[in-house]
Amino acid sequence: MPELPEVETIRRELEEKISSEKIKEVIINLAKPIKTPQAPEFKKKLTGKKIKGAKRHGKFIILEIEEGDFLLIHLKLTGQLIIEKSEAPVEKHAHIIFRFNSGKDLRFIDLRRFGTMHLVDKLEKVKAYQELGPEPLEPSFSPEKLKEIIGNRPTKIKQLLMDQTRIAGIGNIYAAESLFRARISPLRPAKTLKDNEIKKLHQEIQQVLKEAIKYKGSSVDEYVTTEGKEGEYKDKLLIYGLDKTTCPVCKGKVKTIRLGGRGTNYCPRCQK
DNA sequence: AATCGTTCCTGATAGC
DNA sequence: TGCTATCAGGAACGAT
After folding, report:
1. What is the b/e burial string over A88-112, where b = at least 16 CB atoms within 10 angstroms of the residue's CB?
2. Residues of A with catalytic annotation?
3. Which of A115, A109, A82 shows the shortest CA–CA distance to A94?
4. Ranges under pLDDT 50 in chain A
5. What pTM was computed for the model?
6. Can you tell me which residue has its alpha carbon closest to the C1' of nucleotide B9?
């Protein structure tokens, strides 16, 4: 599933490959992902417009459209954005196709249909976007900032890391990885973390995200790049993934629990 | 205000 | 074999 490194990989490729592409036609095979406006107006507002660029905040991709609109795309669990020639056979679950004058398509494919799109003139109109917490790779995200976010909260640290209104872009994969690397149990109430643990966690969050971007993300579930290629960071993950039963550090048994409805792997011997 | 449980959806897999 | 039941999960939403 796409988290910050995966979404950033897609954003970079979109920026490079479809900036200044002009939309000739929008084909809607399934209207469900389009949250606003309604499908006919969505189509009308985009047809004939140029794409100016691609930004990202958290797990949202923002396509900047000519004349000031923004197309916010959230891939949720299984959404994909693929760029290919218009004559390529249409994939199963290709719900929305942006067809360009150049003969290329940008296709939104989404097996579980959880992904969303909003076309708005102001970003603040999308509530979840407007409520996003700070970007973990921005300079403003200092160890002190993380300490402030943790504050006196009793919430389990893993759930706090995954809360998009606290920090933007971290999901199940990178929450588990950064906690493992920082040797902190996902079950620890956030407020019990000592200053040195917060510092370490902050460092590991930034490092694992940067490394994962370098490898074009982790192909877990359906994630692929806009070229349809898998991200290679999957092989570098230390703790995430059901097939891991042995801790790569102490060789002890990895524990799988459910935390806030999510499968969570950790090593009880290494992570305190 | 913060947190918890439920819901959306398909395909893989287990069990009979 | 072929059917049905179960499960995974990000975040919106309603309830507490």
Report:
1. eeeeebbbbbbbbeeebbbbbbbee
2. 2-3, 59, 262
3. A109
4. none
5. 0.95
6. A112
